[in-house]
Design brief:
The chain is 38% helix and 13% strand. The termini are far apart. The protein has a five-stranded mixed beta sheet with strand order 3-2-1-4-5. It has a single domain, classed as 2-Layer Sandwich (Nucleotidyltransferase, domain 5). The chain is an alpha/beta fold. The protein has eight helices and five strands; from the N terminus they run αββαβααββαααα.
């Protein structure tokens, strides 16, 4: 078989059959000649504290995962229940974690793309095509397709979103045990009123993103 074309224009957003077929984009990639299609997504761009976490998932052809949706559309209990099911049914899964130090040194977009890059690189076997949630390509030579709201349009990306969300929530729960004043177990690092009040009272923890608006900077006399 000849090498499949890498022209991303083969995929069109004008008509969206993925609304009725959650594996539409995976199937289209297979019909183009690709065999190992990974979905990748990240969580944690918006919080004031904690890492960015990404997950990558390669699902076998015929795998349904009917209960899996965009992680934001699932309850915490449903996500936790789906986590081991996805891991058991996937051909391969990978997690990428980027620290708040990396976020502060670079920026949140670069950190998110780096987390997705790391997640992809942990996959074995390595995918030959990637479906990416969002509009920014991952800095890898593997052919890929960016999908706006991909976590709602591709079951592979949905599965990745669940793994990333559960993994990050567990990290934030662990951080809560070290710094309970901020309520990380509830807010997951997002800027709730309780979290902002705690920042005003206690200043930032080692896990807070000092480059984010709303986080006091000790080196500038703000805390």
């Amino acid at each position: 078989m000849s090498k499949p074309p890498e022209n991303l224009s083969l995929f069109s957003d004008h008509v969206d059959p993925s609304l009725s077929d959650p594996f539409f984009f995976e199937g289209l990639a297979r019909r183009t000649g690709y065999r190992l299609i990974a979905g990748v997504d990240e969580v944690g761009r918006g919080p004031l504290a904690g890492p960015v976490v990404a997950a990558a998932v390669i699902l076998p052809q015929g795998c349904a995962l009917d209960g899996v949706r965009d992680s934001k559309q699932m309850t915490p209990k449903a996500r936790e229940a789906a986590f081991p099911v996805i891991q058991a049914q996937a051909l391969s899964t990978g997690i990428g974690v980027v620290s708040r130090e990396y976020i502060d040194e670079h920026n949140i977009l670069k950190a998110a793309l780096e987390a997705m890059r790391r997640a992809i690189l942990t996959l074995a076997p390595r995918p030959d095509f990637i479906l990416v949630d969002g509009i920014s390509a991952i800095p890898l030579s593997i052919p890929q397709r960016c999908l706006k709201k991909g976590d709602r349009r591709s079951r592979s990306i949905s599965a990745a979103s669940v793994l990333a969300k559960v993994y990050r929530d567990r990290i934030m729960a662990a951080y809560h045990l070290m710094y309970p004043a901020y309520g990380f177990d509830r807010n997951k690092g997002y800027g709730t009123q309780q979290h902002r009040d705690a920042l005003k009272q206690h200043g930032p923890s080692p896990f807070h993103r000092l480059s984010f608006k709303g986080v006091p900077r000790i080196d500038q006399g703000e805390a």
